[in-house]
Structures are given as C-alpha cells and as structure tokens.
UniProtKB/TrEMBL annotation:
InterPro entries: Chromosome_partition/occlusion (IPR050336), HTH_ParB/Spo0J (IPR041468), ParB/RepB/Spo0J (IPR004437), ParB/Sulfiredoxin_sf (IPR036086), ParB_dimer_C (IPR057240), ParB_N (IPR003115). This is ParB/RepB/Spo0J family partition protein. Pfam families: HTH_ParB, ParB_C, ParB_N. GO terms for molecular function: DNA binding. It is found in: Cytoplasm, Nucleoid. Keywords: Chromosome partition, DNA-binding.
C-alpha cells in the first residue's frame, strides 16, 4: 500500500492556523510545506522523540487512528531529524501518534520530512505539539515544563513565554510535582483532577495530603468541597487549643488544693467524670515540702 497517495481524513493531520502561528513565532517548522521533500522511511528506522513528554498513549485512540490509516493513508508526513548517536536512525520531532498508529496498521513505511534541529528545539517542539494538538495529562505537562527548565536552564517565565502560556499556568502546574507520588499517580490516571490536586497543596500540614486525597476520591468530592475541607482543616490547626471548661465544684477543689499545698494546681475534668491533677513544684526541696504536707514519707 502506498500511503502517501491516499487521501487523508485524519483529524491528527489537520493543523490549526493558531498552532502554525505559535510554532512560527518560535522559529520551528512543525509541519510539512509544499516545498519540502517527502521521503518514505522504514518505520523500523524511526525512534520516538527522546524528549517526548507524553508517557501514556491511549490504545483505543491509536487503534482508531490505525484503522483510519489503513482506509485513507497519511497525507501529512511526520517530521524527523537524524539521530545524533545512531546511524541510519531518525528521531521524531512531530507526529509520534501517526508513527505508532502506522505500526499498528502494519505499514512498513511512513512519509516523513527530515529536518535539522538541536535538542532544545526538539524538546520545545514536542511540548508544544502535545499541548496544542492533544492535551497532556497534568502530571505529564508538569514534567515537561520541569524538563525544559532543568535541561535548557530556563525560568518559569521563560518557559511560559516560549510556549505561549501564562506564567501562573506554568507555576501552578509544576507545583503538582510536590504532591506525594501516589497522589501524582491518581492525577495521572484521572482519579483526581488537576483542580483537586492544586487545592490539596493548600493544606498547611503536608503530611495530611495523602489521607485527604483518599477521602476526596472515596467521597467523590468536587473541587469546591475540597476547598471547604482544606479551609476547615487549616483553621482547626491554626486555632489555639483551649482548655475545656470545668465546673464550679472542680474549680473549688483546685483552689483548695492550691491553698493547702501552697503551689499551682491544674485540674482537667471530662464529661465522663475522669480527669487528672497537676501539681507544680519549683525544686527538689519544694517537692519534699509538698510530700510532707501530703503526709508521704518515702523513707518509711
């Protein structure tokens, strides 16, 4: 089957003007032009982008794309570069889903345009394509931003500018990586939303995040409900603990003991009638004095 001659109706190959404009601003040609030379490359000679931020590809969606490729072929070629350290191998700049689906379809070759790009451009293009064409999971997006910052030595502001994002979006997304790993995994697989995860970060006691996240999933809480829960827990933690009220009778006992022992006495008393008596003393001699008043003789 000669895939490049068949008409494509694949949504994966339709590029919006907004995306082209964004890539153009970054100096990246992410799609083939009429003037490009298109080659049929063996799929076995192509490897995934080493900077691909997407860790999970939906198998069902890939199968649908493979079926469409079998029926209609591929009109929009993928974009690749020669692998730096592997002879006769190519790394994908854009179009990894098409390449994966082509393998599922059983095709031996795929139309491609070969370009020369450095690692920084490969990384930036991979993030841009995934963010614009098929949303990454929040955790994958956060990891992609962090990888750009760490590898390219960029600030959050610089990453936001390169990707056409607000700085707050980049900052709030990267913060998800400070959540406990199990919570990140729940966001990754969709059991928790990004909004719920961000709200959990507001807990003052970070050790509570894991248990609260479990409760959020068990009770199927909305983001608004999580916000209320987090606020309540923070208020409870910040409010000073007050000693429980004691009755007049207990206060009288407290005063009588303080007078008899000539020291400070504190009595706690619960609703069940149980409690404890605290007797303060200032020194070993003071302790011996109190024991004498109480009629206690350890030497007896």
């Amino acid at each position: 089957m000669t895939t490049s001659k068949k008409k494509s109706v694949l949504g994966d190959n339709i590029v919006s003007g907004g995306l082209n404009a964004l890539f153009g601003q970054q100096g990246i040609e992410i799609d083939a032009k009429q003037s490009d030379t298109i080659k049929e490359l063996a799929v076995e000679k192509i490897i995934a982008n080493p900077f691909q931020p997407r860790h999970h590809f939906n198998e069902g969606a890939l199968r649908e794309l493979a079926n469409s490729i079998q029926e209609n072929g591929i009109l929009q070629p993928i974009i690749v570069r020669l692998a730096h350290d592997q002879k006769d191998q190519y790394e994908i700049l854009a179009g990894e889903r098409r390449w994966r689906a082509t393998q599922l379809a059983g095709n031996q070759t795929i139309p491609a345009v070969i370009r020369e790009y450095d690692d920084a451009t490969m990384m930036q293009a991979a993030v841009l394509e995934n963010l614009q064409r098929e949303n990454l999971s929040p955790i994958e997006e956060a990891l992609a931003y962090k990888q750009m910052m760490d590898t390219l030595h960029l600030t959050q502001v610089q990453v936001a500018k390169r990707l056409g994002k607000a700085r707050s979006v980049v900052a709030n997304t990267v913060r998800l990586l400070t959540l406990p790993e199990p919570v990140q995994a729940w966001i990754q697989n969709g059991e928790l939303s990004m909004g719920q995860g961000r709200t959990l970060l507001g807990l003052h006691n970070k050790r509570q995040i894991l248990n609260v996240a479990k409760r959020v999933m068990q009770e199927n809480m909305t983001v608004r409900q999580v916000e209320r829960l987090v606020n309540e827990m923070n208020e409870a933690q910040s409010s000073p603990k007050q000693a429980p009220e004691i009755s007049t009778e207990v206060k009288a006992v407290e005063m009588a003991l303080a007078t008899k022992l000539s020291t400070k006495i504190a009595i706690t008393h619960n609703q069940r009638g149980a409690g404890k008596i605290e007797i303060n003393y200032g020194s070993d001699q003071d302790l011996n004095r109190i024991m004498t008043v109480l009629g206690l003789d350890l030497d007896a």
